[in-house]
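A sample follows:
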Amino acid sequence: MAWIQVIEEDAAGGELAALYRSLIDPESGGVDNILKVHSLNLGGLRAHVALYRSAMAGTAGLPQLEREMIALVVSRLNGCHY
């Protein structure tokens, strides 16, 4: 397994702490590791969140609910809770 240095929620300050607060997963009560890997690069974290939100937004061709169902099935098949 790869190891990537991250800043944990309790060590985050300033802008990172504020962004973390907006990204807390209600199920786990913390910030998902997939997001924390960007903690050393605040711009990268913001870009990751923006890309995810854009990809999951509904369009005329594929509504948001269907996108979320596809993401759920893919995550389950991959053994990932994200």
Remarks:
- The chain has four helices and no strands.
